[in-house]
C-alpha cells in the first residue's frame, strides 16, 4: 500500500523531460487542456491567486499544489500534464 501511494504521487508530478509535461506562463493558463500541479517563481517571483487564496511565490522557488482555479501570476510559470494523458486517451496532444 505504501509503495502504491508513493508511485501514484510521483506519477502526477510534472517532469519537464516527459513528453506529456507542459510548462506555460502563469498568466496564460489553459485549464481545459492541462492539469497543473506546480508553480515556479521564475527569476522575479510573483503574486498569484490559486484556488481562491493569494500566494506569493519567491524567485527561483516552487510550490507543489493541485490547481483548480487560477488568476494573476505574471512572472511565474505553471508545470503540469496534458489532460488527455490522464484520461487514458489514445491521442496525445493538446493546445500549446
How would you describe this protein?
- The chain has a single domain, classed as Jelly Rolls.
- The chain has 2 helices and 7 strands.
- The chain has helices spanning 2-12, 83-86; strands at 21-25, 34-40, 46-50, 53-57, 62-64, 70-72, 77-82.
- It has a 4-stranded antiparallel beta sheet.
- The chain is globular and about 30 Å long.
How are the secondary structure elements laid out?
Layout (H helix, E strand, L loop, with lengths): L1 H11 L8 E5 L8 E7 L5 E5 L2 E5 L4 E3 L5 E3 L4 E6 H4 L10
Antiparallel strand pairs: 1-7, 2-5, 2-7, 3-4, 3-6
What does the average pLDDT come to?
Answer: 78
Largest sheet: 4 strands, antiparallel
Secondary-structure-based class equals alpha+beta
Low-confidence stretches: 1-11
Overall number of domains: 1
Bulk shape: globular
Strand content: 35-45%
Please write the string of helix (H) and strand (E) elements: HEEEEEEEH
Number of strands: 7
Cα(first) to Cα(last) distance is 36 Å
- For this structure, the CATH topology is Jelly Rolls
Explain briefly what this protein structure is.
The protein has 96 residues and is α+β, with helices and mostly antiparallel strands. It has two helices and seven strands.
Amino acid at each position: 500500500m505504501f509503495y502504491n501511494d508513493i508511485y501514484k504521487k510521483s506519477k502526477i508530478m510534472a517532469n519537464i523531460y516527459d513528453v506529456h509535461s507542459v510548462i506555460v506562463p502563469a498568466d496564460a493558463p489553459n485549464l481545459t487542456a492541462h492539469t497543473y500541479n506546480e508553480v515556479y517563481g521564475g527569476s522575479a517571483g510573483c503574486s498569484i491567486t490559486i484556488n481562491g487564496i493569494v500566494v506569493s511565490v519567491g524567485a527561483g522557488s516552487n510550490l507543489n499544489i493541485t490547481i483548480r482555479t487560477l488568476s494573476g501570476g505574471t512572472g511565474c510559470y505553471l508545470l503540469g500534464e496534458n489532460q488527455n494523458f490522464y484520461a487514458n486517451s489514445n491521442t496525445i496532444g493538446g493546445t500549446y
